[in-house]
Write a structure and sequence with these properties.
The protein has one helix and 29 strands. The chain is mostly beta strands. The strands form seven sheets. Strands 1-26-25-24-23 form a five-stranded mixed beta sheet, with no helix packed on it. The relative contact order is 0.14.
């Protein structure tokens, strides 16, 4: 299936090229976008916090930084707080209730920070960052310096993602063609997976299986990895014609995931089906870099714990019209429901 999604809401960020889009885990309709001037090669960056209302998408807050912003993550314990990753090697903590500038700036990486993620397991509040300096760093947002630096990658780290299941465990994907699993309680790498014969630009954890991850790479493919046996991928998905820039597992369905690419498209997949490609959305005219699937069900005043309710027995058939957000270098942020998510999968 190919073409544009049904109802699409769009917001333009003039002179800014989108790198990451993330829905708030707390507030339905609120979305953060990290963007950069001049395609991230030079110039400044902007964190745009957007709100949906009946009229469309409006700008709720906008924060500027003196270098490009390449990723953004929401706090899991404060609905107003976000963290961004910048081209100058720093992380910024922002508070939408205090729109004067960053609350804190952490500058320890020696090159661009391309990835940042806030831990999702209960009982801990950690941030992990990944950089072109080939290191990942662990941060406590309440402490002014990193707690630990993780070394081992031999190329740029493009993606760092916390496990939603295992406290203190995160994955990293790199230009050295490996996916690595780390435990903050131990100094060295836990698992090294030679996942592609190309740079890996993105990874994500399945929300329903603590052993399953997906990678997306410059070889145009997505691959699934079971940590109990990493010799071969459990699935390989082909369809993109250029590098896969970002991959995201669905929060609502164990075998459904989405990917965006330098081929300007967003694709939706169900790796359990004989024909796994469900839909291709083509509504950007430049590299599509940011992608997220909302935890919220439109029209329901749910919160972050919607995800936990799903684990107690909610069926996919009872959850309709899931929203997706993406952003691209064409200056556009879009929110929509692809047809494959508007009905039970």
């Amino acid at each position: 299936m190919s073409g544009a999604a049904g109802r699409v809401r769009a917001f333009r960020l003039p002179g800014r090229h989108g790198y990451a889009a993330e829905f708030s885990p707390y507030l339905p309709g609120r979305l953060a976008c990290a963007a950069a001037q001049y395609y991230g090669i030079a110039g400044c960056g902007t964190l745009a916090v957007l709100e949906q209302n009946e009229a469309g998408i409006c700008l709720f807050r906008s924060f500027d930084w003196n270098d490009g912003l390449f990723d953004v993550t929401w706090s899991e314990n404060n609905e107003h707080v976000l963290v961004t990753a910048s081209g100058d090697g720093s992380l910024q903590i922002w508070d939408t209730a205090k729109p004067t500038g960053p609350l804190q700036v952490y500058k320890e990486h020696t090159q661009e920070v391309y990835s940042v993620d806030w831990s999702q397991t209960r009982g801990e509040q950690f941030v992990v960052s990944g950089s072109w300096d080939q290191t990942a760093k662990l941060w406590d947002p309440a402490v002014g310096q990193s707690l630990c630096t993780f070394k081992g990658h031999e190329g740029i780290i493009y993606s760092t993602i916390w496990s939603p299941h295992i406290p203190g465990c995160f994955a990293s994907a790199s230009g050295d063609q490996t996916l690595r699993i780390w435990d903050v309680k131990t100094p060295g790498v836990k698992i090294v997976i030679p996942a592609h014969q190309a740079e890996i630009l993105s990874c994500d954890w399945c929300k329903y299986d603590e052993n399953l991850l997906v990678t997306g790479a410059v070889d145009c493919s997505l691959k699934g990895w079971d940590l109990r046996n990493v010799r071969q991928p459990v699935f390989t998905l082909f369809g993109h014609s250029y590098a896969v820039r970002r991959v995201k597992f669905s929060p609502f369905h164990a075998t459904l995931l989405a990917s965006c690419s330098y081929d300007f498209t967003v694709r939706f997949w169900d790796f359990s089906k004989p024909s796994p490609l469900l839909e291709t959305v083509e509504h950007h005219t430049e590299f599509t870099c940011g992608l997220d699937l909302s935890l919220h069900i439109p029209g329901q005043t749910s919160d972050y714990w919607t995800l936990n309710l799903l684990h107690t027995g909610w069926t996919c058939a009872s959850l309709l019209s899931r929203e997706v957000a993406d952003c691209a270098w064409d200056e556009l942020v879009k929110i929509y429901t692809p047809s494959c998510l508007a009905v039970p999968v």
